[in-house]
């Protein structure tokens, strides 16, 4: 077999492999070498099993599609639950699944197509063509910048790898680890003696899962699914008050050494959602429980100052600019069918790294979690992720309090 040089960078190769699992890619077809004719494509790609098509255009876009079903020129309409289109938007490949009730592609002697909608090497030319059908909900401007002229088109054979992947973050998915984490959290004592409990302030956009995070943590220690905080999906924030939620160790148990503080979601529209300028006032303890944050302003905040003791530590996890007086923890929803996939999920790893880079924080401060939302029973893997994130928050709180105590001693 002739030696072919791939145009796919190593970084993008890893990202695409992350979409497909622990796989290896072998280059079968390169249009600039073999030609853009359908016959050249089929000569090298038929009966090769699952394949990944990667196209490049003159505007620098990298996009394509994956099919798990052989090309055989059968003339049949193919159903393929694994098929998807992708496009690199920034550093992360964004996937588009086939719409329900639509065929994945037609297996004919023509050029490669996806859903009889997106054709590559159309008319045996270096062109991508969108027929306008509705098999995939795609935006051509986003996917390939409406630049239909291809500079290259490659097809890779996709095979399962025999090499064991090294996880990007080690997680022990055992009941023993869950019990250990619960014990560490129960017995946590803030390093600063004047602080009885760590207060964790949750900040993020509408629908980020702030209230659901409290419900999930509360569920673990209550031993059942709870929904004390209002949560769900809506165009505007379901949380309309600043709330402080202690968590008890079981129904009759003692309060645990932390308090989760919930806020209204951040919104882009002026006058809607939590005012980001007032976050520092919340951190300083000037806002009481059940305060209606939709009317939050500095004048009303300080009316309540006398109601608060100043021996509490506020800890924040959010997305945005750093504010003085608190350390910052970042977390993101891990939306996976199997939570245990996060260890080997290259795409999730890259997303965590991108969040770290954009916000200027260490990767160790970005923690994927899976909140309880539709489940009726607790699940071990969700518990481990949630408790790991909470334990890290308490660890970082200790680091902050240790630094604050040293500062007080020096001054």
From TrEMBL:
Share an example GO biological-process annotation for this protein: immune response
Q: Which SUPFAM superfamilies match?
A: P-loop containing nucleoside triphosphate hydrolases
Q: Name one Pfam family in it.
A: TLD
Task: Pinpoint the TLDc domain residues.
Answer: 2-159
Q: Which PROSITE patterns match?
A: TLDC
Family matches, as SMART domains: TLDc (SM00584)
Which family is annotated?
Answer: Belongs to the IFI44 family.
Q: From the Swiss-Prot or TrEMBL record, give the protein name.
A: TLDc domain-containing protein
The species this protein belongs to is: Sinocyclocheilus rhinocerous
